[in-house]
Amino acid sequence: MRYVYGITSALLVGGSALALVTQSPVGAQVAQNESSEIARAVPRSGAPESFADLVEQLQPAVVNISTKQEVTLGVRLNPFAGTREPITQEQQGGGSGFLISSDGYIVTNNHVISGGPRGEAVNEVTVTLTNLKEYKAKIVGRDAASDLALLKIEASGLPFVKFADSSRARVGDWVVAIGNPLGLGSTVTAGIISAVQRNIGQGGAYDRYIQTDTAINRGNSGGPLFDLQGNVVGINNMLISPVGANIGVNFAIPAEAAIPVIDALRAGERPQRGYLGVAIGPVSEDMADALGLRKDRGELIQRVEEGQAAAKAGLRRGDVVTKVNGREVTPQQTLSYIVANIKPGTRIPLEVVRDGKTITLNVVVGTRPPEEELAGSNFDPEAEQTLPDDPAGSGDQAVQERLGMAVQTVTPDIARAIGVDTDTKGLVIAAVSGSSDAGRKGLRRGDVILSANDKPVASADALAAVVEEAKRAGRGAVKLEILRRGAPPGFIAIRIAG
C-alpha cells in the first residue's frame, strides 16, 4: 500500500457553550436531521446486521499476490580478477488483487508488481487463491500513470467479480474492503465513502480518488473496494498517515477510471489519453486581477507545441482557458485532467479569454504521447526513469527486450541537458533495467550510445537492427561506443538477452 506521510493536529477546546433556543417562525425550514426523509434513509437497525453473507460470496474472487525480483544494488571490483561484479539482492513484495474473469484475468496495482530503483516489472509473480492453490502469473500489461496492472493465470472455472458504476457512489455509502494487509491473508474491513472525486494534488489524468475510512494497510494495495451489491466500486491504492499505518484516510482508484485502462491492457493496447500540446500555469490572484477574472478560474497557456491539437485550433501563448467542453477549469478540475479523460479524436469547444474578451475555439483532441517521449523535451539526466510498459515502436521494444534499456534520439536540447556537444549524434539512454547486463555493467540514464558494432546509431530501429544482425551471426554480445559527460568515448560489450 502506497502511503503519504502527513502531519496532523487536533485542537481541543474545553469549557461550556451557550445554546440559544428560539421559536421557529411559521413556514421556516426544518433542520436536516429532523426531516421525515431520515427515517426512510436509515435502516431500522441503523446499519447492516452483518456483512457475512456478502463476504462469503466475494472472498473467493480476491487473491494474494507475492513477487520476487533480483535487484542490482551496485558494482564492486574483484581485486584478483580485475573485473567489476554486480552486487545483487533478491527482494520480495506483494499485495492484493481480484479476478475479473473465470479464465484467470486479475486486476491489481502497478506498484504491487513493480520493483527495483526504476520501477521495473518484477521477475516472478505468484497468485494464491483463498483455497490456497498457487499459480505463476503472467504480467499482461501495466500502466504506471494510472497505477494499474493486469495479470493472467492459467486456470478456468474461477470465481470472479464485476465492476460497479462508481459515478453513482455517494458520500456516506457503505463499502467493504477485502485484501491481504501486513501479510495477513484474506482480511475483511468495512467503512463508508468519505469523499468522491478527491484531488490529492498529484496531478495527471488519474488524480481523482474515492476516499474511505475503511481500514486498509500495506498489502491491501490492488484489492477491491466493494459496494453492498457486491460490485467493485474502487481499487485500494494508498493511504495518508503520519505513521505509515491506517488512520482512516484511505484512497481507492474509482472503477470508472480503471475500466478503460484494464480494457486496453487486456486488448494488448496502450491506454489512450487526450492531449492538447500546451504548457500551462495557474492563474494567480494577481493575474486574475490583471485579466478581470475570478480567482482560481482558468489556466494560463505558457507554450503551444507546433503541430499539436492546440496549435491547429488557434490557441496562443497568453490565452487563459476557462472552460473545456462546458466544464469550468479550476484547481480541482484542471485543464490537463479534463482533457486527458476525453477520448482522442473528439471535437470539443474551449472557452478562452484573450485580450480581455471571451472567445470560443473548437479543437480536435489529440493523443497523449508516451511519457518517455514527453520527457525527451525536458530531459533530466538525474531523474529516475522506468522502462516503458508499452514501447513506442518495434525498434524500441527490441532494444528493451534485448539490451534492457530504453533509448531516445539525441536532440540539441537533450545534448545541452546532459552536457555534451549539441551536434552529438546518437541515442541517449533514458532508462536501464537494474537486472540487465547493461545495468550491471554501470550504464545509466544520460549516457549516449554513439555506435553499435562500429555502426553509427541515431534511432532505436538502427540499434535494434545491429543487435539482430549480431544474433543472426551467432554472437552473444554487442559492442557499444558510449559517451558520458566529462569523459572521452569508450567501448563496452553488453550481453544480448533472449
From TrEMBL:
Its EC number is 3.4.21.107. It catalyses: Acts on substrates that are at least partially unfolded. The cleavage site P1 residue is normally between a pair of hydrophobic residues, such as Val-|-Val. PROSITE patterns: PDZ. Coiled coil: none annotated. Residues 1-19 form the signal peptide. Residues 269-338, 384-486 form the PDZ domain. It is found in: Periplasm. It comes from the Bacteria. Keywords: Hydrolase, Periplasm, Protease, Serine protease, Signal, Stress response. Residues 370-396 are annotated as: Disordered. The keyword Transit peptide does not apply. InterPro entries: PDZ, PDZ_sf, Peptidase_S1_PA, Peptidase_S1C. Belongs to the peptidase S1C family. This is Probable periplasmic serine endoprotease DegP-like. It comes from Sphingopyxis jiangsuensis. The lineage of its organism: Bacteria, Pseudomonadati, Pseudomonadota, Alphaproteobacteria, Sphingomonadales.
